[in-house]
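User: Fold this one for me? It's P2X purinoceptor.
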Amino acid sequence: MGQAGCKGLYQSLFDYKTEKYVIAKNKKVGLLYRLLQVSILTYLVVWVFLVKKCYQDTDTSLQSSIITKVKGVTFTNTSELGERLWDVADYVIPPQGENVFFVITNLVVTPNQRQETCAESESIPDALCYEDSDCPPGEPVVAGNGVRTGRCLRAGSEQKGTCEIFAWCPVETKSRPAKPLLGEAEDFTVYIRNFIRFPKFNFSKTNVLDTTDRAFLKSCKFGPKDPYCPIFRLGSVVSWTGSSFQEIAVQGGVIGIQIEWDCDLDRAPSECYPRYYFNRLDNRFSENSLSSGYNFRFAKYYRDAAGVELRTLFKAYGIRFDVMVNGKAGKFNIIPTVINVGSGVALMGVGSFFCDLVLIYFIKKSHFYRDKKYEEARAAGRRQDHPGHGQETSFPGLALPLSPQVTLDQSQAALGLSFSVR
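Assistant: Here's what I get for P2X purinoceptor.
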């Protein structure tokens, strides 16, 4: 038995087993099956391969570098600064050009400050006092401009005053101008040059049009008619975010310039080009909100004829531009192609499984199809070696009861009907 079992197992290794298919003549289920097949096939071809391009290997580890240059001049005449010409070195911070740059559009100027004692600004809550004890010496004023000297300065007969401080005096007291100082910055331009590289495919590109015309960058402006020009008018950039340049120039704001690269490297390199998106990032919906606007302070230092150090304090309002770059590249690869084709073939089996459920569970004649699809097989009964054992056996012309004491010689029976009784 052991050898026979091993032999049968060995032979079964080379057997091929196939499924039994039942053809159901049901038009409704057949139509449902074809619709499912067409839907799955359309999904695979249109969405998976044409839209998502899942036959490609992708690289999202974009390496990028940004260079920015702002150009434009304007002239102002104010009581604090007098007549003054503003160029790039005056209103752009930082001047070297990075992916983040700031353009000044409005100013509060406090000239000729020197280190001495003076009264703190009345707009500082922590500086208010009624007597000298309210101004402990040596303690800085919270959100103020200097350190308390211990004196409470009151104007005339007023009971309430402000603490005297040691600071750069006179302190800043002027409010923000209602009209932007550099409103003409709307016509300034910024040149944004972007270098990118996808390391997996060793592919590099820039957003500047590949041309030998040296006058191209001096005359072009980015827009619908010239989308390959990297020179942007500041007023246009702000308007593309849905804001007004003159309004945002008063208290400042933050503008995001997003450059997106989506490159299909199965096509020509010239078809890999950037797309630009412009958004306002600060709180644009509430003009009086504390979170809206953008400003900071900086100073320019000098000395007078007596050698005393002086400075001019600037509180600058303006527009901060953040240039952000992202993207991906794709190229045909046999591995994702095979994986997605295999997934599609497996997905086709879902249609058969669903139609089987409908056929054997949800239609009127489901029991009929269920009986055709599934068969019940039962094991046969044990065969008896001696069917005549314990029974009477008769031979022609001879009738003798056979009992356990009677035996039949099979070799003799094969020759005739001879037998012996013991």
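One thing worth pointing out: The mean pLDDT is 84.
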